């Protein structure tokens, strides 16, 4: 069986992480049997080092930066982290499941994500403070401390307000319009979802969970591109499981 490592919330069993939903979507889409083990933010680095999982990036001081999502496959004895290599590994190891990085598309899929995922960063900024509220205190305080240090101001002040909020929403609308222009049908590559769809959808679902369906930010995003992004979530709703509070995303 596969083990999927995620960050817990105050509600037992509630998946919320924008980053980790990417791989959870993939596992659900492939209908692979897996269990979730929950790891608090400050324990991620030690966990990865213990299991030989390399850092996925570097901190400003040059030391390794360890992140989730991560998986363990007892079929092969492999631990690994980071969405793109996990997606490729699952495609290769379980070839009878639908591919999320179809053969021959590796370069274009990576380019689609690397070029367009940063366009979602302004949207994610709106959810920063809520990330400190949905998590358990040990993770919430860690997130506050590390992100405040990175941005040079309290997490609450990272969230755009006033005129900055208006301008940020306009930028999000523009950015999402550019992503929408890439879609060739129901999904970015046509009739079936691939990794970029799950990367984008994970962000929308995470923001919706964190801010709430009735929040003014989400209600604005829901209208952009004629409801395109709500439609994307509706298209992949079957892959939301397991999810302890389905009413939040109904």
List keywords for this structure.
alpha+beta, 250 residues, single chain, 9% strand, disordered C terminus, globular
Q: What can you see in these coordinates?
A:
With about 250 residues, the protein is an alpha+beta fold. Helix 6 packs antiparallel against helix 7 and helix 10 (about 195-210) packs across helix 12 (about 230-235). A hairpin with a 5-residue loop joins strand 3 and strand 4 (about 65). It is built from 12 helices and 6 strands. The protein is globular. A 4-stranded mixed beta sheet has the order 2-1-5-6, with helices on one face.
Overall mean pLDDT stands at 93
How do the helices and strands follow one another from N- to C-terminus? EHEHEEEEHHHHHHHHHH
Q: What portion of residues is helical?
A: 40-55%
Q: Label the overall shape.
A: globular
N-to-C terminal Cα separation, in Å? 30 Å
Category from helices, strands and their pairing: alpha+beta
Strand content: 5-15%
Rg (CA only)? 18 Å
Please mark out the parts with pLDDT under 50 across 5 or more consecutive residues, or reply none: 243-250
Largest sheet: 4 strands, mixed
Annotation, overall tally of beta strands: 6
- Helix run count: 12
Major beta sheet, strand line-up = 2-1-5-6
What would a concise description of this structure say?
The chain has twelve helices and six strands. The chain has 250 residues and is α+β, with helices and mostly antiparallel strands.
Q: What's the arrangement of secondary structure elements?
A:
Blueprint: E1 2-6, H1 18-30, E2 34-38, H2 44-50, E3 57-58, E4 64-65, E5 70-73, E6 78-81, H3 83-93, H4 106-116, H5 121-125, H6 128-134, H7 137-151, H8 155-158, H9 162-180, H10 195-211, H11 216-223, H12 228-235
Parallel strand pairs: 1-2
Antiparallel strand pairs: 1-5, 3-4, 5-6
């Amino acid at each position: 069986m596969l083990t999927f490592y995620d960050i817990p919330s105050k509600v037992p069993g509630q998946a919320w992480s924008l980053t980790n939903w990417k791989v959870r979507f993939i596992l659900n889409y492939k209908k692979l049997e897996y269990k979730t083990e929950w790891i608090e933010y400050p324990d991620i680095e030690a966990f990865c080092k213990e299991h030989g999982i390399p850092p996925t990036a570097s901190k400003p001081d040059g030391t390794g930066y360890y992140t989730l999502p991560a998986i363990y496959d007892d079929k092969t004895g492999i631990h690994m982290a980071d969405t793109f290599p996990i997606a490729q590994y699952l495609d290769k190891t379980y070839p009878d499941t639908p591919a999320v990085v179809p053969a021959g598309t590796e370069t274009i899929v990576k380019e689609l994500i690397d070029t367009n995922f940063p366009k979602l960063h302004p949207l994610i900024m709106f959810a920063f403070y809520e990330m400190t509220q949905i998590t358990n205190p040990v993770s919430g305080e860690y997130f506050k401390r590390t992100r405040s240090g990175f941005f040079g101001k309290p997490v609450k002040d990272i969230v755009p307000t006033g005129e900055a909020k208006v301008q940020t929403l306009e930028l999000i609308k523009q950015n999402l319009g550019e992503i929408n222009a890439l879609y060739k049908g129901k999904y970015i590559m046509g009739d079936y979802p691939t990794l970029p769809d799950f990367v984008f959808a994970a962000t929308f679902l995470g923001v919706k969970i964190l801010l709430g369906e009735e929040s003014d930010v989400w209600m604005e995003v829901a209208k952009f591109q004629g409801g395109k992004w709500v439609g994307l979530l509706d298209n992949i709703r079957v892959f939301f499981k397991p999810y302890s509070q389905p009413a939040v995303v109904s």
